[in-house]
Amino acid sequence: MSHDLHESLRDNVRILGDSLGRTIADDLGQGFVDKIEAIRAHAKKGRQGDVLYQRELIDYLRQLPEKDLLPVTRAFNQFLNLANIAEQHYRARFRRVEDYKPGSQPVLGELLARAREAGNSPRKLVETLATMRVELVLTAHPTEVIRRTLIQKYDAIDECLSAIEGSEDYPERGTRAQGRLEELISQAWHTDEIRHERPTPVDEAKWGFAVIENSLWQAVPDFHRDLDNLLLETAGERLPLDAAPLRYASWMGGDRDGNPNVTARVTREVLLLGRWMAADLYLRDLEKLKTELSMWKANSALKAEAGEVAEPYRELLKRLLTRMEATRDWAKAKLDGANHNGGPIIETRDQLYAPLLACYRSLCDVGLDTIANGALLDTLRRVAVFGVTLTKLDLRQEASRHAQVLEELTEALALGHYRDWDEERRQAFLLDELASRRPLIPRRWECSAESREVLDTFKVIAQEHSEALGTYIISMAAQPSDVLTVALLMKEVGGEVSLPIAPLFETLNDLDHAGAVIDRLLALPGYRALIDDRQEVMIGYSDSAKDAGQLAAAWAQYRAQESLVNVCESHSVDLTLFHGRGGTVGRGGGPAHAAILSQPPGSVNGSLRVTEQGEMIRFKFGQPEIALRSMEIYACAVLEATLLPPPAPEPQWREEMDQLAKVAHRAYVGVVREDPDFVPYFRAVTPEGVLGRLPLGSRPTKRRQEGGVETLRAIPWIFAWTQIRLMLPAWLGSGEAFTRRLEQPGGREVLQEMRNHWPFFGTYLDMLEMLLAKADVSIAAYYEHRLVDEPSLKTLGGKLRERFAQLEVAVLDVLQQERLLENTPLIRQAIDVRNPYIDPLHGLQAELLQRNRDADGVISADLSRALMVTMAGIAAGLRNTG
To answer: What pLDDT, on the 0 to 100 scale, is given for residue 87?
Structure first.
């Protein structure tokens, strides 16, 4: 990475930091800014190993008057958010630094050239891209800590940085941009960064649609235009007009697993919002096209369609505009609970696509290709990707909720108790009913409110066009009957609409049996008749890691995918794997390119679904340039995995992984499940107890409100450990596994061989290295010192830190490095730059947690808000927190 690139990032961090300092000085006085600078200086010198300054930092923070605690936390939080803006801006400008590892992210042009060298014909490249089906599924998991109003200001700040950089020859423009920058940073400082109320599922959906409106609406045609140009160079042809290698789906308003706030009414409202927003966006496109397509030359087909008019393109576009306006008015009326008395609306993608395609073909036929391939082509690409709904809405529900409906139904019909039946009897009953022509559910059946809600969801499916909906996901799926139950309810209540049904395998046991379950399912002729030889399966990352530890879970996920690929091949069924990844390493996170190429050979065969969660949506898709690069990374990775798949692991490596996972799992379970001090330690040392106060998302932090840590969702479980920088869920157990193997003959050599030649293992080690660099056991030790009294809990904390140190030694040994991130200096720099701003937030958070406990949770509004801001600031500083 060149010196100039580093300087660009540093300059922007300085510009933003200086502006924030002036804003704070205007508000609270220069004396307060000096106080902030003193805290930062103590933190910086403490980071250089000066123990005196570490102690002085803590003493300084503890002596701050109460009135200063909130503004101090806000100052450091704001700086970390501004540092993120500078880094995002840097990534957008210099597209080859996505993970700050030179050469690790190929650009698409280089990959196409490599694919050609490997013997793939130009036609093969075009066909592979044209038939590629990658769906990025936007989810609203509660990890986005920044309010939408601030996100909009941060996007505007990014635009100011661009204007300043581009003003060398126009100093007056630079001056104007600097003035606007000062104004925006002042606006951000004087805006409350913490929501006062949790967002509703509808709020979350609106946030998702805003990402499409503000970023993806521009990025999608730009991506296709770049792809077209590359294909023209490489293969001599464009991507087919209706091809959409990357599409978008959403869980926002459809994910009801453990979230009682997502109801059938909410799902219906979110679907209508998507229709309204799509109509509004297309109206802007159509108005622009009506203005631009003033030509009179047209082919006979278009003239016949438009009639005897001077401007046939405008005539067709006027008709489309009328129907699109009616569509927007219809959606608005439905949302308002009113009747719509307007004209016919656009209900399907083809009703919008066909007239635009007629215009495109006409322009090409009369020699106006340049005009056809301008704004009109951009709109056609948008229609291919977004349809008339913007996203496909997935639905997710837990398997037990479907079983409850069947239990109540069989009891009401005097057929017995469904829950008491074994799996064979359940399957036989469900297959018989799927084949039966008579209805199973009585018209006026009185069932429980829970079952009524499940049935109402299937009614929503029945009332929608199938292109508005994505996949029906069954969480905690364990048997073929879990899938058959959904198929039966869809048939009984869902009418003509039949969605793909994806069982979600997420615990270690479920992952180990996933292949066998799908094998039994596909062997059922009654089920095969329903699926058109296509099966989708979702792999859960969060709960498997929480259940078994990261190393054992990662290996179980890999083996499950291998098994599923083999099973579907044996049944001649097309498999799409749906990866339920989160933002953190502990939830399957990491650079997308490396993650996809580390999957088993054959598992990414031109199709892939993957969740994009919480704050990662903004980091990857929040701005057009960043979104463009993210789309290119996904397209590159799936194309490479399809045409140039990684080699299968050697049998010896598989045996090694079996042993490593076994040791790691035993060590993880020995602490998390079996040590009686673990749960009390977790509750004492982390902010888990106050996480519920942080209004991050619409979903409760627990699946059940009673019970212990086992009821916690994977996100708050990881968020809590991240806040104290121990990151425990992502590494616990790995140290024992690697250390034991390194102590055995040939251990180092085989681990290094696996690292160098097996993408799965190499990627795992890279993620572990980054995680170890972001973790900080000295900070965790301070939380323990401040918050833990019980000697046995302190003993456990000491042992955990010893395990961490043991793992770091082992990882450096395998990597043959003296320090972490030697080969990724920019990640190292990004962490080092942020630490002096995160460290004071850790110190303040530990202090505020202790005050909160001393006061039995009854602290002033300002202190409570300061505690929330420390959580938001640490999350912003560490970025992939959930």
So the answer is: 85
Distance in angstroms (rounded) separating the CA atoms of residues 344 and 324: 9
Q: How far apart are CA 443 and CA 152, in angstroms?
A: 49
Tokens of 691: 């996480």
Which CATH number applies to 263-386? 1.20.1440.90
pTM score over 0.90:
yes
The pLDDT of residue 351 is above 60: yes
The DSSP symbol for 702 reads: B
Residue spans per domain, the chain: 263-386, 397-573, 651-686+724-823
Output the pLDDT for position 713: 65
CB 428 within 8 A of CB 480: no
pLDDT of residue 96 exceeding 80, the answer is no
DSSP secondary structure letter of residue 765: H
Report the 10 Å Cβ neighbour count for 118.
9
Would you call 95 helix, strand, or coil by DSSP?
Answer: coil
- Reply yes or no on whether the pLDDT at 159 is more than 50: yes
2: Cα separation from own chain's centroid: 31
Q: What are phi and psi of 517, to 5 degrees?
A: -65, -50
Q: Which helix (H) or strand (E) holds 786?
A: helix 777-787
Nearest to 249 by CA among 265, 227, 271, 266: 271
Is residue 832 very low, low, confident or very high in pLDDT (cuts 50, 70, 90)? Answer: confident
How far from 31 is each of 28, 392, 499, 502, 823, CA to CA, in Å?
A: 8, 53, 62, 59, 41
The Cα 632–Cα 272 span in angstroms is 30
Tens digit of each residue's pLDDT (9 = 90 or more) over 755-787: 999 999 999 999 999 999 999 999 999 999 999
Mark out the alpha helices in 94-216 (DSSP H runs): 108-117, 122-131, 148-165, 171-189, 201-211
Question: In terms of C-beta density within 10 A (0-12 exposed, 13-18 middle, 19 or more buried), how is residue 791 classed?
Answer: exposed
Give, for 576, the enclosing helix (H) or strand (E): strand 574-580
Burial class (CB in 10 A: 0-12, 13-18, 19+), 749: exposed
Amino acid 486: pLDDT: 97
Check whether 798 has a pLDDT greater than 90: yes
Question: Considering only CA atoms, which of 522, 515, 516, 494 is closest in space to residue 558?
Answer: 515
Q: What is the mean pLDDT of residues 395-414?
A: 97
| CB neighbour list of residue 437: distance below 8 Å, 6 or more residues apart | none
Q: Is 824 helix (H, G, I), strand (E, B) or coil?
A: coil
Question: What is the torsional sign of CA 648, 653, 659, 661?
Answer: negative
223 has a pLDDT exceeding 70: yes
Once rounded to an integer, what is the mean pLDDT over residues 102-123?
81
DSSP secondary structure letters along 337-366: T----SS----SHHHHHHHHHHHHHHHHHT
DSSP 577-606: EEEE--SSGGGT-S-HHHHHHTSPTTS-SS
Helices and strands, counts by H and E, the chain: 37, 8
How far apart (Å, rounded) are the C-alpha atoms in residues 621 and 631? 9
Cβ atoms 199, 604 nearer than 8 A? no
- Under 8 Å CB-to-CB from 456, ≥6 apart: which residues? 263, 264
- Average pLDDT along the chain: 91
Helix (H, G, I), strand (E, B) or coil at 473: strand
What pLDDT sits at residue 140?
76
Pairing of strands 607-613, 534-540: unpaired
Q: Which positions are annotated as active-site residues? A: 141, 546
Distance CA 627, CA 619 (A): 9
Beta bridge partners of 612: 138
Q: Which of 841, 640, 584 is nearest to 759 (CA)?
A: 640
Q: What is the mean pLDDT of the segment spanning 340-367?
A: 96
Q: Work out the angle at residue 457's Cα, subtended by the Cα atoms of residues 454 and 461, and round it to the nearest 5 degrees.
A: 140
pLDDT at 340: 86
Please give the pLDDT value at position 143: 47
pLDDT > 60? residue 698: no
